Amino acid sequence: MIRYGLAFLLSFVFASCWTPLMRRAAEQLGIVDSPDGKLKKHGIAVPYFGGLAIYIGFLLTLGVFTDFGTETLGLLLSGTIALMVGLIDDFGVLSPAQKLLGQTLAALVLIKSGTYIKLSYLPLWVAIPLSVLWILAVTNALNIIDILDGLASGVAAIAAFSIAIANYTAGREPIAFLCIVLCGGILGFLRYNFYPAKIYLGDAGSLFIGFMLASLSMNAGYTRTNLLAVASPVFILGIPLFDLALVMWIRWRNGMPVTKGSPDHFALRLRRCRLSVRETAITTYIVGALLSGTALLISHVSLEWAVATMCGTLSAACLLAYLLLKVDMQS
User: Fold this and answer.
1) CB under 8 Å to 160, separation ≥6 — which residues?
2) Of 162, 270, 277, 315, which alpha carbon lies 20 to 30 A from 28's?
3) Backbone φ, ψ for residue 33 (5° rounding)
C-alpha cells in the first residue's frame, strides 16, 4: 500500500507542476476556449492542454514505479493514440467522423495487445465488437461532459479510484496501480480546473482519460459473486454515460445531428435550476460516488440484492431524466 500512496502522490505532484506550464504553452499557441455567448458562457478565454499535464504526470510516475509489462505497454500505446487524436482536434482540424475513426484505431490497438472484454460465456466475435463499442461510448461520454469547470475531471477521479478498488479486490494489482496513478494525476490537475477554472482538459485530456477509464474498467472481476455485476462498470461511469444517453435522445427527438453542440447536458440543466457552478460540480461528485459505491456493492452481494439495487438505481435515473427534460432551456 505504501507503493500505491507514493505513486499517487508523485503523480499528483507531477501533474500539479506541469499544469501551469501547459497553461502558458496553450496561451502562447492560442489554443484557448473562447466564450461565444451560447454554449460557452465563461467570462474569459481559458487555455486547453490540461490533459497533457495529466498524461505527462501519469507517464513519468509509471516510469519510476513500473516495469512496463505487455498489458501496460498496450494501454499506454493505445491511450497515447487517443491523446494524439484529441490533441489534433484541439487545433480544430478534425471532423467528427475523423475523430471517431482515430478513437476506433486506438481501441483496435488496445485489443491487439490483448486487452478486451473477457467473459467465459461471451464468444470472441461478440467480445471484440462489444469492447470497441464500450471504449468509444465511455471515451466520448467523458468528452461531452467536459462543459463545466471541474466537472469531467472530478467525475473521472472518482471513477478511477473506484475502478482501482474493484481491480485490487479482484487481485489485479497492476491495473489497480495504473488507476491510482491516473487518479493522482487528475486530482493534481483538478486544483487548477475547479471553479473558476484556469485551464481546461481539452479534447486531448478528455479523450485520453475517457479511453483509459474504459480500458481499465473492462476486466475487474465484477462477476465473482453474481453474473449481474457485469454491469458494474456502467454504474461506475454512470454520470458520463447518463449524459451521453440524455443528449443523444434529446438531439434525436429534435431532429438534430448527435454531433452538433447544444445546451442539453444535465449539468447545464442543473445550472438552470439555479445551482452555481461549484454546486453543480459537487452535486455531481456526490452522485458519482454513490453510483460507484452501488457498483462495488453489486459485485459483492447475492443475485437477489443485486437485482433490487440495480432496479432502484435505474428507476432513480429514469426519474431524474424525466425531471431534467422538464427544465426549460429556451428562455
Assistant:
1) 179, 180, 182, 183, 186, 212, 213, 216
2) 277
3) -100, 105
DSSP tag of 230:
G
Between the two ends of the chain, the Cα-to-Cα distance in Å is 52
Specify whether the CB–CB gap between 202 and 48 falls below 8 A: yes
pTM here is 0.94
Local structure of 142: helix, strand or coil: helix
Structural domain boundaries of the chain?
2-325
C-alpha cell at 295: 457498483
* DSSP class per residue in 144-191: HTTTSTTHHHHHHHHHHHHHHHHHHHTT-HHHHHHHHHHHHHHHHHHH
- Residue (of 293, 312, 174) closest to 236 by Cα position: 293
Q: What is the pLDDT of residue 122?
A: 86
46 DSSP β-pair partners: 33
Q: Which three cell numbers stand for residue 285?
A: 461528485
**What is the rounded distance in angstroms from the CA atom of residue 293 to the CA atom of residue 155?**
13
Residue 14: what are its φ and ψ, rounded to 5°?
-60, -50
* Beta strand residue intervals within the chain, DSSP E: 32-33, 46-47
What is the grid cell recorded at 34?
A: 473562447
Residue 226: Cβ within 10 Å count: 18
Rounded to whole angstroms, the Cα distance separating 148 from 266 reads 11
Q: How many residues does the chain have?
A: 331
